[in-house]
Design brief:
- The structure is a single chain.
- This protein is α+β, with helices and mostly antiparallel strands and 99 residues long.
- It has one domain.
- Helix content is 23%, strand content 31%.
- The protein contains 3 helices and 4 strands.
């Protein structure tokens, strides 16, 4: 038997993002596809998404915890990685970490 799994997906909603960390991963694809974060500065990102879980020492890469779930038979932890250049977002990635 062959089974495909599909992660749930929904439109980005700031209030849900800020209050429900476990389901954030469901909004990641919308943030990325619509380029909501591209060209925003760090203060705009904090205003929209809150304080990141991790920032590197040069403040170029930020990580947001997006909860866990999906993955079919396995289990996935989800992170949103935001990359800055000259204090503007240039790249946004949905990182999936298998358990």
């Amino acid at each position: 038997m062959f089974t495909l799994s599909r992660e749930p997906s929904r439109d980005f909603d700031q209030s849900k993002w800020l209050t429900n960390k476990e389901d954030r991963f469901e909004m990641a694809d919308d943030l990325i596809k619509r380029k909501v974060l591209i060209d925003r500065d760090s203060s705009q990102i904090i205003q929209l998404l809150g304080i990141p879980l991790v920032r590197d020492s040069l403040n170029l890469n930020w990580i947001y915890d997006m909860g866990s779930g999906g993955g079919g038979l396995g289990f996935l932890f989800h992170q949103l990685r935001i990359t800055f250049d000259k204090n503007k977002v240039i790249k946004v990635e949905h990182i999936r970490i298998p358990d």
